[in-house]
């Protein structure tokens, strides 16, 4: 206002001077003209620079700036100019302008709020937010992934859910996670213990260490409480805590598994439980009936029985075995075991065509065991074994045991063995015969005493040719007690006081011995057979009433043994031994005899008499035979009252006393052929009867004699 008042005074004074000049008649010539520049600040600001200026016409004013106060902003000058700074130039008139200001409307300040997640989790909610100054953000949650847990935010807030309020600055925070850890706890129930780390702390996704459940003696591991059945466990990819208990069960009715206090067996399940403790002692406490059960052998080559089993005079009834595995029998494989006082009644065994070539093992079949190494006392078995179809060799079937090593005492086998369709169709490289025995299929260095075998062995349909694959009948050996017996590795063997009453029937030229089919005594070993005899009738191609064939490079003694049966042969028969090779000073047969009646005929025509029938032996070499005789009747095509051929033998105090009916005159009353043999104090009382169609000829005592000696013979 003060400036405005001064301005008005200047104008009035100027006007007065002009009027005086006119009144006096004076004129003002060449006086400069001045203009006023006035810059006024409106409300809200001020003028920076000279706000009032007087300029000569045409001159330029000074620059001024309209400056707003805080909270205001420049709008324009009143003459419409919008630049806050102005300079009026070439002024030719007075100028008065006002700088116009207005209150500034400031927008609210916006802050950025960012939530981030480290490894192991995510953010639920708006992870990036724009929040006005002083306002609140929205709620977010730090969510851990599976196996992780939320720890804290990077600004040390520990609640997973957060809402930042009254925001006055930018915020950037991270949710921090870490892997969960879990506890693995393992506990053993009664009956066992655990091996391993029983309390483990494991990070999510990682694995624990192995823990094994070990049963106490007599117990079995059943399962873990989470239903896992492997006794050793290693929990992997852990995503929760684990707490489990190993469960065990006692397997038997009682006992401790020792010889003085054996485990007690009172049912079939407990019998099978023996497989868990193959080296313990057991006792059967009651009879078992296995009707309706197809039994799998308890033991095999991977887990064989080597303990003791006391049958306790109990009986296992109605055992049935039809399995594809080896060792079809009750026990399967026994090695180093002992079994006693047991009866197996009404056993039924069915074999399979076991591939001995691919399995690289032989096939052993029996009622008690397929393979047995150890001792058997007072075991009695009865039943049937059916063999229908074998094409791989290396097979042994026995009424009691398929292959036995060790001792059998006071045992009895009453078994019917039916065999057919047995052909060696596959070249396994073993070149072994098929073997069938009333008690043992194969006897390996056995010691047998007071054992008895009875029943039947029937072999048929094992002889024809087909598509260039064939099986010759000589590849089958049958023995009333043992099919194939041998000694091995400095192992001596002995058979005493044992009887066979096995009826053997074969429809072709199979090899059969009433006691042993084939006897092999190896070097540096010994075999003694004493007090044994054969009662069962034999019908097949090649027969030895006691032993069919064999050899002895070690020591063999057969004494006080005999045969008393009817023998029907198709090619060659010896009433006691068919063919045997030994050494004179180590192979001795003494005080043995045969009462067997011998009849020879064609396989397919019983009226056609063929073959060689000899009272005691057919072909014997390198043997010493003392005080032996043959008394049975003989009906044969050709042969000898005592033997057909002796080579490098010693014969002392032996004789034959038989009724002999022959078809061919080439027959000897005593022995047909002698070579390098000594006969001493022997005689013959044989009666020769010729077939009605044959002209009688001279009775021949000994047909052929070569480098031999005969002393005191009559």
Kindly, what is the distance between the CA atoms of the first and last residues, rounded to a whole number of angstroms? Answer: 187 Å
Structural class: mainly beta
Q: Choose one word for the global shape.
A: rod-shaped
Largest sheet: 17 strands, parallel, barrel
- Strand fraction band? over 45%
> Level of helix content?
under 10%
Query: Which spans of ≥5 residues are poorly predicted at pLDDT below 50?
Result: 1-28
Total DSSP E strands: 70
Give the helix tally: 3
State mean pLDDT (0 to 100 scale). Answer: 90
The Cα radius of gyration reads 60 Å
Short description:
This protein is mainly beta and 714 residues long. It has 3 helices and 70 strands. The protein is rod-shaped and about 200 Å long.
């Amino acid at each position: 206002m003060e400036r405005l008042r001064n301005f008005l005074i200047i104008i009035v004074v100027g006007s007065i001077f002009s009027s005086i000049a006119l009144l006096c008649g004076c004129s003002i010539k060449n006086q400069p003209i001045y203009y006023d520049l006035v810059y006024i600040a409106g409300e809200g600001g001020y003028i920076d620079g000279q706000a009032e200026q007087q300029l000569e016409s045409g001159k330029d004013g000074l620059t001024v700036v309209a400056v707003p106060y805080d909270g205001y902003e420049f709008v324009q000058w009143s003459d419409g100019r919008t630049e806050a700074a102005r300079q009026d130039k070439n002024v030719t008139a007075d100028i008065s302008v006002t700088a116009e200001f207005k209150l500034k409307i400031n927008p609210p300040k916006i802050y950025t709020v960012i939530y981030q997640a480290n490894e192991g989790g995510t953010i639920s909610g708006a992870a990036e937010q724009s929040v006005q100054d002083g306002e609140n953000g929205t709620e977010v949650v730090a969510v851990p992934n599976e196996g992780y847990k939320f720890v804290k935010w990077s600004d040390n807030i520990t609640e997973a859910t957060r809402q930042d309020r009254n925001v006055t600055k930018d915020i950037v925070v991270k949710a921090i996670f870490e892997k969960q850890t879990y506890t693995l706890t393992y506990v053993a129930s009664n009956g066992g213990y655990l091996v391993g780390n029983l309390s483990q702390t494991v990070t999510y996704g990682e694995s624990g260490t192995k823990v094994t459940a070990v049963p106490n003696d007599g117990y079995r591991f059943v399962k873990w409480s989470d239903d896992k059945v492997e006794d050793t466990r290693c929990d992997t990819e852990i995503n929760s805590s684990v707490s489990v208990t190993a469960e065990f069960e006692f397997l038997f009715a009682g006992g401790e598994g020792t010889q003085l206090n054996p485990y007690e067996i009172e049912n079939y399940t407990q019998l099978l439980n023996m497989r868990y403790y193959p080296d313990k002692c057991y006792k059967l406490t009651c009879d078992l009936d296995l009707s309706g059960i197809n039994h799998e052998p308890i033991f095999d080559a991977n887990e064989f029985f080597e303990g003791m089993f006391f049958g306790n005079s109990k009986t296992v009834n109605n055992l049935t075995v039809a399995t594809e595995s080896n060792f079809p029998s009750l026990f399967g494989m026994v090695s180093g075991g002992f079994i006693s006082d047991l009866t197996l009644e009404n056993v039924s065994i069915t074999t399979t065509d076991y591939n001995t070539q691919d399995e690289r093992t032989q096939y052993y079949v029996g009622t008690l065991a397929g393979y047995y190494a150890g001792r058997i006392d007072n075991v009695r078995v009865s039943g049937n074994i059916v063999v229908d179809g074998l094409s791989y060799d290396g097979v042994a079937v026995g009424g009691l045991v398929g292959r036995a090593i060790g001792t059998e005492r006071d045992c009895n086998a009453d078994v019917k063995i039916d065999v057919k369709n047995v052909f060696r169709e596959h070249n396994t490289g073993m070149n072994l015969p098929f073997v069938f025995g009333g008690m043992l299929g194969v006897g390996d260095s056995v010691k047998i005493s007071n054992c008895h075998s009875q029943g039947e062995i029937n072999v048929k349909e094992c002889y024809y040719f087909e598509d260039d694959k064939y099986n010759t009948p000589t590849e089958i050996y049958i023995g009333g007690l043992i099919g194939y017996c041998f000694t091995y590795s400095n192992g001596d063997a002995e058979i005493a006081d044992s009887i066979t009453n096995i009826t053997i029937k074969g429809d072709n030229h199979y090899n059969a011995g009433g006691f042993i089919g084939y006897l092999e005594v190896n070097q540096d070993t010994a075999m003694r057979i004493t007090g044994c005899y054969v009662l069962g009738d034999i019908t097949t191609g090649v027969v030895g009433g006691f032993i069919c064939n064999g050899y002895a490079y070690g020591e063999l003694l057969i004494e006080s043994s005999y045969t008393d049966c009817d023998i029907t042969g198709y090619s060659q028969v010896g009433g006691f031994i068919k063919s045997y090779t030994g050494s004179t000073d180590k192979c001795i047969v003494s005080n043995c005899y045969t009462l067997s009646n011998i009849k020879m005929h064609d396989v397919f025509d019983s009226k056609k008499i063929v073959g060689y029938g000899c009272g005691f032996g057919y072909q014997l070499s390198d043997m010493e035979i003392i005080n032996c005789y043959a008394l049975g009747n003989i009906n044969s095509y050709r042969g000898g009252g005592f033997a057909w051929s002796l080579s490098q033998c010693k014969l002392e105090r032996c004789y034959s006393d038989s009724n002999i009916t022959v078809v061919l005159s080439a027959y000897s009353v005593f022995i047909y052929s002698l070579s390098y043999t000594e006969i001493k104090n022997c005689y013959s009382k044989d009666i020769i009867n010729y077939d009605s169609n044959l002209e009688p000829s001279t009775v021949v005592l000994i047909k052929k004699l070569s480098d031999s000696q005969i002393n005191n013979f009559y």
